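Quick one, tokens below:
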């Protein structure tokens, strides 16, 4: 990983799309700091297409699409994308997305609660449609990454997909991920060509569930807290910020816009 300050001018000038994870990438200790929200507005005002790519639930995505300066939001790790046209929020769901009432997810929930003491169903589960989120670090007690890995192992033993974020282990039925839905949305909405236009995308992330994005996009940026997970990520981002969380995101945006 190179310091974000080493981003070449010509690379910055080619960026059309800025994608970002939410938790611990544009938030800091669970809050969206003013400097990070201001950075979203600066990107928007500079004419760049801004799309959060998150594991957060459908209910959050509806609000984000309506109220944030963004051009769409991919949620539940790729199960859905919401965007606003005029006063209406439009919604696209992945054809492989399966309801989170699936019996395998119910079994995973029971096993996690029984086998990993202290974990719990995420507080935002009530507004999810397709995945089950097991909280290991958003609320107290904060568990370790070792325990998060145990949760992920249980999910995979039961035949589900699972990803570790900075706060949750998200698990779902169906083959999809953040990257696939992000590329589909950019293509259908903005004419993005995944074979030709990858260098037009800058992605900001912080944790293992962002690895497909780090791998795919050459202009990928990890906020400083990504270093905590480097033993769990085979393909690290190309660049890293000095600061973590929302402050790191704002740092990266400042460099990008200055070099444009």
């Amino acid at each position: 990983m190179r310091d974000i300050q080493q981003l070449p001018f010509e690379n910055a000038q080619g960026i059309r799309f800025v994608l970002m994870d939410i938790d611990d990438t544009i938030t800091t200790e669970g809050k969206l700091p003013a400097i990070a929200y201001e950075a979203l507005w600066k990107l928007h005002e500079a004419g760049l297409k801004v799309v959060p790519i998150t594991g957060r639930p459908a209910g959050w995505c509806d609000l984000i699409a309506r109220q944030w300066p963004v051009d769409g939001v991919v949620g539940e790790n790729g199960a859905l994308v919401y965007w606003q046209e005029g006063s209406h929020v439009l919604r696209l769901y992945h054809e492989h997305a399966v309801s989170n009432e699936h019996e395998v997810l119910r079994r995973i929930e029971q096993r996690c609660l029984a086998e990993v003491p202290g974990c719990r169903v995420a507080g935002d589960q009530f507004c999810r449609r397709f995945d089950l989120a097991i909280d290991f670090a958003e609320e107290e007690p904060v568990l370790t990454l070792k325990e998060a890995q145990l949760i992920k192992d249980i999910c995979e033993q039961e035949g589900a997909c699972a990803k570790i974020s900075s706060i949750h282990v998200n698990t779902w039925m169906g083959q999809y991920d953040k990257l696939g839905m992000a590329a589909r949305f950019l293509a259908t909405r903005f004419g993005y060509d995944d074979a030709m236009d990858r260098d037009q995308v800058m992605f900001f992330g912080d944790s293992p569930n962002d690895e497909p994005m780090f791998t795919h996009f050459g202009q990928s940026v990890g906020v400083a807290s990504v270093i905590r997970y480097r033993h769990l990520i085979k393909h690290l981002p190309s660049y890293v910020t000095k600061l973590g969380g929302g402050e790191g995101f704002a740092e990266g945006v400042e460099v990008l816009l200055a070099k444009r």
